[in-house]
Amino acid sequence: MSDIEARLRGLGLDLPEPAAPLAAYVPFVRAGDLLHVSGQIARDGSGVIRGTLGQDMDAEAGARAAQVCALHLLAQVRAACGGDWERLARVVKLTGFVASAPGFFDQPKVVNGASELMVEVLGDAGRHARSAVGVTALPLGAAVEVEGVFLLR
């Protein structure tokens, strides 16, 4: 078992199966040493985590949804690397999209759920640049979507 898998298990987390695309795109593209992973919406065992932050969901629940997005990102990275975590050098950038009601301004707190998970699992290699963006709506009514860029060896 890799260090990454051990850290995930230590946190009581398992990676989901990589999600299939919902439309006309691919889950990831490698360009040189960079792996661009398409946006991953928050889905758990009961389906899509739906909601609008500041309306029917608070920042803490949104951060948990962002953490789920991060797990889906890591599942895509694992698939892109053929299961070989040694190929992952670091997280370069995450962009989080948060379904937000008017007047909700805590998008950074929500996306912290994904950012903090990357550091917990990957250590310093999980530290990254980031954007947190409020949007009116996301696919399938998801509360949060996160995309990422990763550096591969």
From TrEMBL:
Family matches, as Pfam families: YjgF_endoribonc (PF14588)
Domain Endoribonuclease L-PSP/chorismate mutase-like: 5-142
Signal sequence extent: none
Species this protein is from: Rubellimicrobium aerolatum
Tree of life domain: Bacteria
InterPro entries in the cross-refs: Endoribo_LPSP/chorism_mut-like, RutC-like_sf
UniProt-recorded name of the protein: RidA family protein
